[in-house]
DNA sequence: CTGTTAGCGCATTCAG
DNA sequence: CTGAATGCGCTAACAG
């Protein structure tokens, strides 16, 4: 019923081995023979059997791209960019040549699912795996990840991190593209301070995430450098509506804890966390959000409280997603070159580009000053 | 070096077949035996060889989800939702049980890449394929797609459409979830007309796309019903900056053509097409955009021209993406239940849900009236 | 309920 | 440059 390589061989009057050779193109074959074989392939409408091929070759043409939340353009942009480098432009025939199958796996931010997908990819003998976005900083999970990745690398799977710092015990087997979240966070807060803000609220992402921690650390570095981390009062711990907890970051003084609310990286969380923040500290003049999506929620909350942006309160985001420039007022944020980073990760996964020296490259984050931040009143 | 099923069998003192049976769980096995096997699996840290398994079983656990643009939340939400139904929640062990590998393939809206991905999926003997979003209405491509899908279905791959109408010559082999784009478009324009608008511009998506055509048809239906499709002048054909062409829709009168500008489904296109529209017809009092992303660009253009929304011009979108409610003013749009549709498509792909009667279900679109539309001045 | 036996379709040694 | 033979690791009949 289904046409096999042998059928093609018969029709082209060559051996199966020869057909295999022209299809894989990594072996000398006479031009005339190749011609004949390709014609037979088209005539018969032959499609290679991937599993059989992978079984024999002990490797597949699958490349996995893990993301935390594919509904978030932050990940969509990186994943899409990576795919452009992996899937190949196609030859316009739809016949599928040597290109790999770049597939996106949505972990939903769950450590378990992350591990499960890695196992699934290991099972498929994936050629490479790209891990995007922040990692969960849980010792048990980190150990499990390290073990799993080691096994994958061992089986010949190339490992690339994109927008994620390398594992603490990370070996040189992986290439890592890390965003300068700390530097970006610092410069953003420095900008607010230079504008004259002294009480700055922070709507952070979920705890136990590298991205969350680094951005928050940058924020606090800036505060400390400006001498704004003193604790006028001994603010008590408190949780936001979304079940988050006050930041327990290394640098947090009591007051800073009070000015920090954690929550998921989504709009709703930004909204609720901001209300909580305004309740706790009605005198904040600026709010820094974990990312642009959260910032949008923060803006809505600020407005619903009857305050104007930036006249009454400045709001800033992070990432510079496409919609951020269209917010009203346009969002001050930190631009991350998501597309470029994703594309580079894709190339690294394909072995089309050499890993950075030391295996890790830091991607610069650029401050984008726009209308949502201004000097405080008075 | 790499541990195989036979190794597990030896350690568990059973036959390879038995191990296979407990792993696949679709065959009776004594509890004690299963226990022993599972322990051996864990002890040996065994991971099934996917290709070998797929080869022997003549089917894989891969499910492909095709999207036009994964950086667009419209697709991200559907794809993510589908994956929740396919990937399985995991058993918390990261061991990967019977779950499928749901993978997202980003076609970038290119017909060639769509076909290529389908071939790649066919090569992998995918268990199912979910095609999301609008289709390209090009006869040659449609024929190629029909042929390819027929072959896939023939090989046992389940085909599901999500947010895309079934192919003209579509057989009953596929289940289709189609959005009511036409009805949504009609109600949206009816809403504007009821507000008193008479000159309504339309920033359409790319031509040759079902989604584009259906939404535009709905728009024109509403105009016609209100007697607004007359052609006061014989507007000449004209293209937008983004290389788009004036709508050649079936119902387009000369004037309507002049009030319609096509372009890609992105923010920039919305911006430029709107400028073009305002140049062509400075007297429009409302602009309907192909989707929310385009609407955001339209809003920016309107503002950059010194006009206010909705006082000077009303703007409406389509899809009701998460950010739309946060636009200022909040965007009037048509809500599509993207998550629910994606999840249902995922279930259909898994065979966990029965196909709708006739194989095709229409998903209702709900008008969301918000601040960006109001009665025209005067 | 469990073991035995055959391939699944292809990539690769080796010869020629 | 090409053909013949071998086995990748697993599942699916069959028996028992």
Strand neighbour order, sheet with most strands of chain A? 2-1-3-4-5-11
Assembly form of the protein: homodimer
Head-to-tail CA distance between termini of chain A: 81 Å
Instruction: Calculate the mean pLDDT score of chain A and round it.
Output: 88
- The residue fraction in helices of chain A comes out at 40-55%
Structural class by helix and strand composition of chain A: alpha/beta
- Strand content range of chain A: 5-15%
Computed over alpha carbons, the radius of gyration of chain A is 25 Å
What's the total helix number of chain A? 13
Describe the structure.
The structure is a homodimer of 378-residue chains. With 378 residues, the first copy, chain A, is an alpha/beta fold. Chain A contains 13 helices and twelve strands. In chain A, the strands form three sheets. A six-stranded parallel β-sheet of chain A has the order 2-1-3-4-5-11, sandwiched between helices. In chain A, strand 3, helix 7 and strand 4 form a beta-alpha-beta unit. The first copy, chain A, is elongated and about 90 Å long. The model of chain A is unreliable at 232-252 (pLDDT under 50). Chain A binds a DNA duplex (16 and 16 nucleotides) through helix 2 and helix 4.
């Amino acid at each position: 019923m289904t046409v096999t390589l042998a059928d093609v061989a018969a029709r082209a009057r060559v051996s199966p081995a020869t057909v295999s050779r022209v299809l894989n193109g990594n072996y000398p074959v006479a031009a005339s023979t190749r011609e004949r074989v390709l014609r037979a392939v088209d005539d018969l409408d032959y499609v290679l059997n991937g599993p059989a091929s992978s079984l024999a070759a002990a490797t597949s043409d699958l490349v996995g791209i893990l993301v935390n939340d594919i509904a978030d353009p932050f990940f969509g942009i990186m994943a899409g960019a990576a795919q452009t480098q992996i899937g190949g432009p196609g030859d316009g025939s739809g016949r599928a040549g040597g290109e790999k199958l770049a597939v996106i796996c949505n972990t939903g931010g769950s450590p378990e699912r992350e591990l499960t997908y890695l196992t699934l990819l290991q099972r498929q003998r994936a050629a490479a795996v790209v891990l995007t976005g922040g990692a969960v900083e849980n010792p048990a999970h980190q150990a499990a990840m390290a073990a799993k990745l080691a096994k994958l690398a061992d089986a010949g799977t190339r490992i690339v991190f994109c927008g994620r710092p390398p594992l603490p015990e990370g070996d040189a087997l992986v290439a890592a593209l890390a965003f300068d979240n700390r530097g970006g966070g610092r410069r953003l807060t420095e900008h607010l301070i230079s504008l004259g803000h002294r009480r700055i609220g922070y709507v952070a992402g979920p705890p136990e995430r590298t991205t969350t921690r680094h951005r928050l650390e940058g924020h606090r570095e800036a505060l400390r450098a400006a001498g704004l981390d003193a604790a006028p009062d001994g603010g008590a711990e408190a949780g936001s509506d979304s079940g988050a907890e006050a930041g327990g970051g290394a640098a947090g003084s009591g007051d800073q804890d009070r000015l920090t609310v954690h929550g998921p990286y989504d709009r709703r969380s930004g909204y609720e966390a901001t209300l909580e923040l305004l309740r706790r500290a009605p005198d904040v003049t600026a709010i820094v959000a974990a990312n642009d999506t959260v910032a949008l929620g923060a803006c809505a909350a600020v407005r619903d409280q009857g305050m104007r942006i930036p006249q009454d309160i400045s709001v800033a985001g992070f990432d510079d997603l496409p919609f951020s420039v269209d917010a009203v007022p346009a969002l001050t944020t930190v631009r991350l070159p998501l597309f470029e980073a994703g594309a580079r990760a894709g190339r690294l996964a394909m072995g089309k580009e050499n890993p950075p020296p030391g295996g890790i490259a830091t991607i610069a984050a650029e401050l984008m000053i726009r209308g949502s931040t201004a000097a405080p009143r008075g």
